[in-house]
Specification:
heterodimer, A: 253 residues, mainly alpha, 6 helices, 0% strand, B: 269 residues, 2 domains, 9 helices
Chain lengths: 253, 269
C-alpha cells in the first residue's frame, strides 16, 4: 500500500520534470531560432556581401585604377623625359645670340639680352649712344620731334619690358622644372595639387604674354600713328609744292 | 480513536496525502532550481545563447574580420600609395617655395617704365602704360597732341583724309586694347599669386577645385590673348592698307600733276 503511494508520487514527479523543462524550451526555442536565422541570413549574408564588395573595390583600385606597376611606369616615363630633354633644352636656351659687332651696339645688345632688370639703369644711355639723342627744340618741326620722342620711348619701354620678360622666363622655366621634379615623385592622389600649381604658373605666364602683347600693340599703333602723321605732313607739303610749281609756271588757278 | 484519526487511516486519503507530498517536494526541490524568478529555463537559455554565440562567431565575426582586413589594406593603400603624407607635404612645400617667384612675376609685369622726354609724348606714354582702363577715354587727346589732329576736310583730299582718320583710329584702338591687356595681366598675376597661396594650404581632395579655378582663368586668359592677337592683326593690316593707299594716292597725284604740267607746257593751238 505504502509502495503504491510512493510510486504514484514518483511518477508525478517525473511527469513534472519532463513537462516543465520541455515547456520552457518550446517557449524560447522559436525566439532563438528566429535570432539565429536573422544572424545567419540577413546579417551574415549582408556582411559577406560587404566583404566581397570591399574586396572587389580594393582589387579594382590596386589592379585597375592605380596599379603600382603603372605608377612606377609613369614615374619612369617622367624620368626618361627629363633625362632626354631637359639638359638639351637648357643648353639651347642658354645659347648666346649676341650678333652686334661695334662697341656701342654690342653694349646695348648685351644689356637687352641680359635678362636682368638690374641692367635697366644704364640702358637709356646705351640706347641713345646707338640710336642718337633727341634733337633739340627747333632742330626739326615740333611734330617730328614729338614723334621721335614717343617712338624712342616706346622702343625703350618695350625693350625694357622684354628684359623683364626674359627674367620672368628664367624663373618660369625653373618653376616648370621644379613642377616636373615634383610630378616625378608625387602620388596619384597628390598629383592634382601639382597640376593645380602648374595651371597657376600657366596663368602667370599668360599674364606676362599679355604684357608683351600689349607692347606689340603699342609699337604697331605708334608705327601706324607715325605713318599717319607723315601722310598728313606729306599731303600738306605736296599740296604746297604743287601750288608753288603751278605758281611758278603761271598755271595757278 | 477519534473520527479524525480513522479518517487519516483510510487508504484513499493516504494516497492523496502521499501524492500531495510528492507535488510539494517537486515544487520545492525539483522545480525551483530550474526556474528563476521570472519563470525562465536557464539551461534552455544557455543552450540557445551558446548556439547564438557559435553562429555570431561564424556568420558575423568572420565576415567582419575579413571586412576589417580589407579596410586596413585599403587604408594602407591610401596612406602609402595614393595620399602619402610625405607627398602631400612635398606638394605644399613646392607651392610655398613658389611664393617668391609669383611675387617676382608681378613685379616684373608692373615695372615703372618712363622714357619720353617731351611733355606731350610723356603724357601719351604715361597713359599708354598706365594699365588703367579709366584712361582709355583720354587717349584720343593725348594721341593727337603727339601725332597731330585730323586736318580740316579742305586741307587734304577726302580719300587721304579717310585713310588718315582710319589709321589714327586703328592706332588708338590698339593703344586702348593694350591698356586693357595690361589691366588683365595685372589681375591675372594677382589671381595666380592667390591661387598659389591656396594650393600651399590645400589638401589632395580640394586641389582639383583649385585646379578647376585655375583652368577657368587660363581659358579666360587665352581668350584675352586671342583678343590681343586679333587687334594686332588689325593694326598690322591697317599698316598694309595704308601703304597701299599711299601708293594709290601718289600715283593719282603724279598723274594729275603730269597732266597739268603737260597742259601748261603744250602751246595753245
Amino acid at each position: 500500500m505504502k509502495a503504491k503511494a510512493m510510486s504514484c508520487g514518483a511518477s508525478m514527479l517525473v511527469i513534472m520534470l519532463l513537462l516543465f523543462p520541455t515547456g520552457a524550451y518550446a517557449q524560447f526555442g522559436d525566439i532563438f531560432s528566429a535570432i539565429l536565422s536573422t544572424i545567419t541570413g540577413p546579417i551574415g549574408g549582408a556582411l559577406t556581401d560587404i566583404d566581397e564588395i570591399r574586396s572587389s573595390i580594393l582589387g579594382t583600385e590596386q589592379q585597375v585604377l592605380w596599379p603600382l606597376s603603372l605608377i612606377a611606369q609613369a614615374r619612369n616615363y617622367i624620368s626618361t623625359i627629363k633625362a632626354g630633354y631637359r639638359a638639351w633644352m637648357n643648353q639651347v636656351y642658354r645659347l648666346p645670340v649676341n650678333s652686334a659687332n661695334l662697341q656701342m651696339p654690342k653694349s646695348l645688345e648685351s644689356a637687352f639680352l641680359s635678362g636682368q632688370i638690374g641692367q635697366i639703369g644704364g640702358f637709356g644711355q646705351k640706347y641713345t649712344s646707338t640710336y642718337g639723342v633727341q634733337p633739340v627744340s627747333g632742330a626739326a618741326p615740333q611734330l617730328n620731334l614729338q614723334m621721335v620722342d614717343i617712338e624712342d620711348a616706346i622702343a625703350k619701354d618695350a625693350t625694357v619690358q622684354s628684359m623683364a620678360a626674359d627674367q620672368a622666363t628664367a624663373t618660369m622655366l625653373e618653376t616648370a622644372q621644379r613642377i616636373e621634379d615634383e610630378a616625378q615623385t608625387t602620388a596619384p592622389g597628390t598629383a592634382d595639387m601639382v597640376a593645380a600649381e602648374a595651371r597657376t604658373a600657366e596663368l602667370a605666364s599668360l599674364a606676362m604674354q599679355h604684357k608683351l602683347l600689349a607692347y606689340q600693340l603699342r609699337e604697331a599703333a605708334i608705327e601706324l600713328g607715325h605713318r599717319g602723321s607723315i601722310l598728313k605732313q606729306s599731303t600738306s607739303n605736296t599740296q604746297n609744292l604743287n601750288q608753288q610749281i603751278l605758281n611758278h609756271l603761271g598755271g595757278a588757278q | 480513536m477519534t473520527t479524525w484519526q480513522s479518517f487519516l487511516r483510510k487508504p484513499l486519503v493516504c494516497r492523496f496525502a502521499l501524492g500531495g507530498a510528492g507535488v510539494l517536494i517537486l515544487s520545492t526541490v525539483a522545480v525551483r532550481p530550474a526556474h528563476s524568478q521570472f519563470g525562465i529555463d536557464i539551461a534552455a537559455i544557455l543552450a540557445g545563447l551558446k548556439e547564438i554565440n557559435n553562429t555570431l562567431t561564424s556568420a558575423v565575426a568572420s565576415p567582419l574580420k575579413a571586412i576589417n582586413r580589407v579596410e586596413q589594406e585599403e587604408q594602407q593603400f591610401q596612406q602609402n600609395v595614393l595620399y602619402p603624407i610625405s607627398a602631400i607635404n612635398s606638394a605644399r612645400q613646392m607651392a610655398t617655395s613658389f611664393t617668391a617667384s609669383f611675387s617676382s612675376f608681378r613685379q616684373l609685369g608692373t615695372l615703372n617704365i618712363s622714357s619720353a622726354t617731351l611733355p606731350n609724348p610723356q603724357q601719351l606714354e604715361q597713359q599708354m602704360l598706365s594699365g588703367n582702363p579709366n584712361n582709355i577715354a583720354s587717349i584720343n587727346g593725348a594721341y593727337q597732341h603727339v601725332f597731330a589732329p585730323l586736318p580740316a576736310q579742305t586741307a587734304m583730299p577726302q580719300n587721304v583724309a579717310y585713310q588718315v582718320d582710319m589709321g589714327d583710329a586703328q592706332a588708338q584702338d590698339a593703344i586702348k586694347k593694350a591698356i586693357e591687356l595690361d589691366a588683365f595681366a595685372e589681375r591675372e598675376m594677382e589671381v595666380a599669386q592667390k591661387l598659389n597661396d591656396q594650393i600651399a594650404a590645400s589638401a589632395p581632395g580640394t586641389a582639383p577645385i583649385l585646379d578647376a579655378e585655375a583652368s577657368a582663368w587660363v581659358i579666360q586668359a587665352n581668350a584675352y590673348t586671342q583678343m590681343g592677337m586679333a587687334e594686332l592683326l588689325r593694326v598690322n593690316s591697317a599698316s598694309v592698307s595704308k601703304r597701299s593707299g599711299e601708293l594709290k594716292d601718289s600715283t593719282t597725284q603724279m598723274q594729275n600733276l603730269n597732266q597739268r604740267i603737260t597742259h601748261i607746257l603744250t602751246p595753245p593751238r
